[in-house]
Amino acid sequence: GAVVSQHPSWVICKSGTSVKIECRSLDFQATTMFWYRQFPKQSLMLMATSNEGSKATYEQGVEKDKFLINHASLTLSTLTVTSAHPEDSSFYICSALIGTALFFGPGTRLTVL
Amino acid sequence: DQQVKQNSPSLSVQEGRISILNCDYTNSMFDYFLWYKKYPAEGPTFLISISSIKDKNEDGRFTVFLNKSAKHLSLHIVPSQPGDSAVYFCAASGVGGTSYGKLTFGQGTILTVHP
Q1: Is residue A87 helix, strand or coil?
Q2: Which of B43, B89, B102 has its CB closest to that of A43?
Q3: With contact defined as beta carbons under 8 Å apart, do A18 and A81 qualify?
Q4: Residues of chain A whose C-beta is under 8 A from some C-beta in B?
Q5: How far is B107 from chain A (nearest CA, A)?
Q6: What is the pLDDT along chain A (113 residues), one digit of tens a residue?
Q7: Which alpha helices (H) appear in chain B, and where do they start and end?
Q8: Could you tell me where the DSSP H helices lie in B31-70?
């Protein structure tokens, strides 16, 4: 069965609004989760590393004030896209590190109109 | 700067034959390599991995070969099945410390296996 879940699986929002995406590890605790983004016909790009109980670390070029990450518990990390714009439309995927294994969620398709 | 490259955007293979997917990397600090299979609108599914201390790892129909001197790896699927049709991503990471779990992905190769 699924090890990592994401909610919602897809979302459509208006430009300027904020969208929250949840990533949950099922039946295990994950102190570290990762957020990736995939634009059409491109590879997955790491956005940030989410650490339980501490601030997320962002990859170069990713705006931390725009992509807010909260990892408040050992089973939940959230990504909030603030003031979303059409160029933020993408497929957002989280992953959870369990020991040395990395499990990916099913992804969230965000469309900003 | 694409540190992991999959130069073939697509590959078409007959059922029962071998599929060979290729991947090149430029960062010599990469120490661990993985292959993922992905369907549209789904997250990647782990297939097989290899550490830089090895040159081959086999798991059922899947074999990954690593040529460190050439900074090249390949995934062999034999025999190929129609259910293998998907996008295959090559990924690389450093091992240990803050690198663990942070993957750099290639662009993906669409594999189509014809019955």
Answers
A1: helix
A2: B89
A3: yes
A4: 4, 6, 9-10, 32, 34, 36, 42-46, 49, 57, 91, 93, 95, 97, 100-107, 109
A5: 4
A6: 568 999 999 999 999 999 999 999 988 888 899 999 998 888 899 999 998 888 899 999 999 999 999 988 889 999 999 999 999 999 999 999 877 778 899 999 999 99
A7: none
A8: none
